[in-house]
Amino acid sequence: MKIGIILISYFLCFLSINDLKAQSIRIIPQPNELITKNASFTLNSEVSIIASSISNATALTLQKYLQEEFGFQNEIIEAKLANEKAIVFRMKADLPKEGYELIIDDEKLEITASNSTGWFYGVQSLKQLLPQASDVKSNSSSLKIPAVSITDSPRFAWRAFMLDEARYFKGMEQVKMLLDEMALLKMNVFHWHLVDDQGWRIEIKKYPLLTEVGSKRKSTQVGPLKWASPIQSAEPHEGFYTQEQIKEIIKYAQERHITIVPEIEMPGHSSAAIAAYPWLGTVKKEIEVPILFGVGTDVYDVSDPKVYKFLTDVLDEVIALFPSKVIHIGGDEVKYNHWKESDAINAYMKEKNLSTPADLQIFFTNSISRYLNNKGNRMMGWNEIMGHNLHEYQDEGDTESNQRLAEGTIVHFWKGDEELVNQAVSSGYEIVNSLHTNTYLDYDYGSIPLSKAYAFDPIPKNLDAKYHSKVIGTGSQMWGEWIPTNGHMHFLVFPRIAAFAEVGWTETENKNYDAFKIALKKLQKSWEKKGIYYAPDSAVGK
User: Terminus of the chain with fewer CB atoms < 10 Å: N or C?
Assistant: First the structure.
């Protein structure tokens, strides 16, 4: 009896020790399965990296990281030349597209995947298992990696971070920094909001005034009162990306297995374009790039064939630049009063037998969808493109529509109740769920504390299980109105981006907020080293 009690006590103690060890080994986002072992792998310059031709690019990424962080000189070799201890990249065809296995014991370190993306994500997990370079003694020639067995793949295929540079231009250095952090956190879509009322940030060679005029504003609304603020900066703001710069950023993202999805707003949020070419608007009069935030002073005249040609010309250059098959057209916050007051628009609606402004918007949106489809692309837009009534400034009758949104459209859900999600998925559309009350990074920590960001589930609670697969992922949106400096942006993005990464990757049953906060400490140390001015624990809420 006593022996039995002793054995049980020993077993429980063993479990407790292993459980504590498992808790101390944390990766963000948390893997599907992580098993700890009572061993470690010794890494030094003598350890070879074994890779084939198809895994060589990822092996080079790891080799460069180990050299820069720890000064190791690990040679990449073929399997037949391997020594006993090595880091091995293996192929396993039946693993999921973005899945990987990471097996570490005292004799080997294996990263197994079916493709380069899986290997890359295996390396990102390995990085988080390694100590911080600052914690390693300068004279140390080796380090210990805890032995683990990880089997992992993402919950959602679409795991996005959005940066709005139309309001404040941030530039290549900041974008590359964000891409680096996204890659470490296994986020795979950089949603780039490049045009809006307050600025046009992408060079379009056929229409040079878009950047010569539309990328500049003479002042900017600022101040603690935000939307109601009467305060102006009295300082000009400008900036845009040349097509060559965009190509460089796209390449940088591709190396990190991130797809850049450009957003070219239409038919609303178009004041910067209209300031450059006044004939694009409904009024056909000169305007300035707005210095106030909010919805702009005019919208595109979609009845004018020249305007449609302009938009398709812009899309042609965008498609030629961006490898992404998905093109985001915005479609949100179109103030219908601009169309209602236009004689040309009213005549066009009568000609096309369109009864309401919502009919017109869906009719226009579908024409853009057909154009993109013919180019081999797919349209995405905020959920107003379905004709949803989301705003108090629209008349109720204006948002009624008998038009059906083009098949194959990705609906980017940002506002409205769960019934609107049900309408979209039951009608056959895939959605990305970016509900603003949970995912908008311009909201302060009082509105979306870190815990609320972490708790978000892209699949609504009451959504029928048969539609769950229609929710392809989620996005976190850094809208730019109130981030005039890089530090403002850092404070709002970090650490919530890590929470959203786990929302997109980790199965709900494997999430644990307390464990996440412990793992966050290591990320915070790396952010400090990189000059990322994240919000301190005292600011992010409970």
Answer: N
